[in-house]
Amino acid sequence: MLMLLVMKNNFRGLLALLLMSQVFAFSNSPQKNGKASISKFHANSIVRKISSTTLFDKWDDLDDEDDELGDPLWRGPPIPRDMKYNEFNLKRQYKNFNAIRGIGGPEMTNDLYARDPDTDVFWFCGKVARISDVSVEMCVARQYPLIEEHSARLRPRELFDKNGLLELWVAPGDSEMDVAYNRPTVQLKKMLRAHETEGADDVKNSEVGFQGEIYEGGEEGFRTQRTEDGMPLKPEIVSPEGP
Hints:
With 243 residues, this protein is α+β, with helices and mostly antiparallel strands. It has one domain (2-225). It contains seven helices and six strands. Strands 1, 2, 3, 4, 5 and 6 form a six-stranded antiparallel beta sheet that branches. The protein is globular and about 45 Å long. Mean pLDDT is 79; it is low at 1-36 and 45-70. Residues 1-25 form the signal peptide. Residues 214-243 are annotated as: Disordered. Keywords: Signal.
C-alpha cells in the first residue's frame, strides 16, 4: 500500500511537469470542408479508429486507489473515471476533438474560458467539440472535471487554489479575435457541471472532445475581462484596419 501511494504521488508530480513540457504540446488539426453536423453513427465510427490505445493495469490500480482515498485538494462532486486528469484521458479527448472538428468544422466547436469567481478575469483554456446530437452545455458538463483541472494547472498562480470551484464559460468557436477586441457581438456563456445539466451523464466520451490550451516560448496566456453576464468589461477596441 505504501509503495502504491508513493507511485501515485510521483506520477502526479510527473504529470504536472509533463503539462509544462511538450508531452501535451498538441497542435491544431487543419480544418476540412464538410457538413457542420455529426451524428452518433459518425461518432461511433470515429472512436473505433482512435481507440487503439489501451490503459495499463498499473494505471487502473492507481485510479482504484484514488477512488478509495479521494483527493484532499478536490472540493467538487465525484469525478467520472474517464474524465480524471491523466494523460490517457487527455489524449483521447484531444483525438475526439480533432476528429469531430475535421468533419463538422468550427461550427461544432466552442472556445473555453476559466474564471476564478472572485475576479473579473476570464482565462482562455482551450476548445471543445461535440457531435450535433449534443448541446454545448452537455459537452462542457460531461468534460468539466478534465477541463477545470487543466485550467488550474495551466494557470497555477491564478487558478490552482480554486480547483473544484472554477467557472467555465464558452464563446463561439474560433472567436478569439472578437473577444480580444471586446466586440459586443460576442457574449460568453456560463456552463454548469454534469449534476446540474440534464442529459450530460448520458453523453459518451466519444461524442465530445477537448483541446487544452498550452503555452510555448514564454507565452503569457490570453485573458479577457468580462461582466457577470459575459459581456466585455472594457470598451471595444477598434483596429486601424477596421472591424
